[in-house]
Amino acid sequence: MKDPSLRRSVTLFRAFLRERQEPERCYALLARDAADQVERYGSVDGKVVVDVGGGAGYFTEEFRRRGAQAFLFEPDLRELGARGEKPPEGAVVADGYLLPVATGAADVTFSSNVLEHVADPQTFLSELVRITRPGGLIYVAFTNWLSPWGGHEWAPWHYLGAERARARHERRTGTPAKHQLGVNLFAHHIGPTLRQVRARDDVTVVSARSRYWPFLAETVAKVPGVREFTTWNLLLILRRCP
Ligand SMILES: C[S@@+](CC[C@H](N)C(=O)[O-])C[C@H]1O[C@@H](n2cnc3c(N)ncnc32)[C@H](O)[C@@H]1O
C-alpha cells in the first residue's frame, strides 16, 4: 500500500474499527505501514532500531522481519504480554524517560502512539534524541488531544470534557476505562509540540504530517487551530543533528 493513498487510509481505518475483534490483524497492518513510512528515508536492513513504548512488540517484530536489529523497550508488563504469548526476544522493561541505551546507539528511534501517554513530552523526546546517532532518524507519532480519537476509548465525548466522557464510558460498558486524563493520557496539542521541536538545536524536522491522511497530509498539519481537529495523529520525522 502506498503512503499516502486513499486505499491505504481506508484499509487502515477498517482495521482500526475492528481492533478489538482482530488485534493481531490490526497491529500487524499498522506495523507494516509504519515500517514502510520509516523506510521512505532508507532501508532498516542491518540498522539498529529502538522501539520505545512498543507495547506487545508488533513493530519490533516487523523491523526484525526487514533485517533490522530491533530492540523493544516497554515499561508496562501488561502491555508486553497483551498478546497472551511471549514478547519479542530481548524485550526490556524500561521507561522512555530513562532508557538503558548508550548515547548515539540507534540508527532509528521509533515511538508510535506513546507521546500522548507521557506527562512530559519534551523530556521523553530528549531521551529519544540522546540515544539516536548523529544523522539518525527519529519517528514519533501521537494522537493529539483535540483529534477525534484524542479521548481514546471515550472518544469523541472528550470534546465535552474528559471526566464526563470517562464516566459515560464506564456507565455504558460497565467496565473501568483504561485511560484517565492526567494519569496515563495527556492533553498534548500539535501547535506547541511543533514549536518546541522546531526550537531544538539537536534535531531538524524532516517532516511533520498527518500519519493516516490519504492526501494533503503535510498541509493539514500546517493550519493553526484547524490542524488540532483534522490531523488525527501527528507524525514527526526528525533527523539527529551531527
Ligand atoms: C497506545 S500504546 C502504543 C503501543 C505501540 N507503540 C503501538 O503503537 O501500538 C502506548 C504505550 O506507551 C507506553 N508508555 C507509557 N508511558 C511510557 C513511558 N514513560 N515510556 C515508554 N513507554 C511508555 C505504554 O506502556 C503503552 O505500551
UniProtKB/TrEMBL annotation:
The keyword Flavoprotein does not apply. Keywords: Methyltransferase, Transferase. Residues 50-140 form the Methyltransferase type domain. One of its GO terms (biological process) is methylation. One of its GO terms (molecular function) is S-adenosylmethionine-dependent methyltransferase activity. Pfam families: Methyltransf_11 (PF08241). InterPro entries: Methyltransf_11, SAM-dependent_MTases_sf. Gene3D superfamilies: Vaccinia Virus protein VP39. PANTHER family: TRANS-ACONITATE 2-METHYLTRANSFERASE-RELATED. This is SAM-dependent methyltransferase.
